[in-house]
Amino acid sequence: MRRLAVATLDGNWEHDHTVPSRTLYPHQWSWDSAFIAIGLATARPDRAWRELRTLLAAQWADGRVPHIVFNPAPPIGSYFPGPGFWDSARAPGAPAAATSGIVQPPVHALAAWLAYRRTPSERSRTELAWLYPRLVAQQRYLTGRRDVGGAGLACLVHPWESGLDNSPAWDPPLATVPADEAVLRAYRRHDTAHADAAQRPTDLDYARYVALVDAYRAGRYGDDGLAGRHPFLVECPLFNTALGLAEHALAAIARAVGADPGPHRERAARITATLVDRLYDPATGAFHPRDLRTGRLVPARTALGLVPLALPDLPPRQVATVLAEACSPRFGLAARMDRPLPSHDRTAPDFEPLRYWRGPSWLNLDWLLWRGLRTHHRLDLAAGLRASMVELVATAGCHEYFHPDTGAGLGSPAFGWTAALLLDVLADESAVD
Is residue 182 scored above 90 in pLDDT? Predict the structure, then answer.
């Protein structure tokens, strides 16, 4: 399995970064690259640092790390939405490289710290020192310009920023986004040419995604006045968990490069406290996105609600109730799991075992939860989840996602972060923290 994972990453290497897959994703994706760097650190450490450097070299002047950095090699029109659609070059502070204008969960500081822990050399310390101010700038952008709610959490302006593009958690805030499916006639979706349409977002959802990019691009990707003009504004539990984890990682990185870790520890504590205050629902015992347009929590019970368990300073009450939710029939976490962990409540009427983020199992969500279980000393549950992750790939290969009942591979084959995170969990039973 290790050879399979390394071969997958080698096959997806593109001179200075890794593409998520050769079939559907021909460019560099932000949080994919962070997860991929974690796995590369176990097998190709030089590439792990190159991966992160390439991505952060395309950082915007305001600190945002774009969710796509476009590779100029693929033919124009080979991927939608491509660089011409984003038109980022006209935005103030955009880099020389063609990029998208939105972001993804900030798991990059955690990736850099884990890569350093795998290979603690002078070269690695030099890489950390180069990355550190850029990672700090990323956090400053997210906790500053994206704090639309005013409480200290980052706000999403598009479901793509969550990483869980098509989750049922976005259905209520998306429902108010005006979109005409005819808008897609001007474009050509490429995802449904490489994967069954039953596994991908619907045309109506895609039309809404396009409408949201249109709205954000019209303001040249500026964040001033978002509350008054943008139709989708949501505080996400996973995104803000990653924000808190980044501050914990930056505190460790700061120590390694001779900076002050104190401010990072303080910000990490504030993010966790605010996450509990704003996104925790005592009625469900889990976390939910907050729609800033309505002020209400989104009721869907998705895997987003479990991910805050990855925070080391999550209070004991929330640890206990999130664990109860994870172990319930909705998700089925156990020391011996009979089915993979789904991305959405498997008892819900809108559970779809095939469709993108609306039910299938994903290794990156499993990996985040696995880390949280070990952090909070639930080694029995961590071992059960780890075994489930390994079995998925052993049975179906390094697929993008998996059927939450049968474990069959879905989406793109030879998928980068699946291979990378498998390498991390295979590296040893108690991978470095």
Answer: no
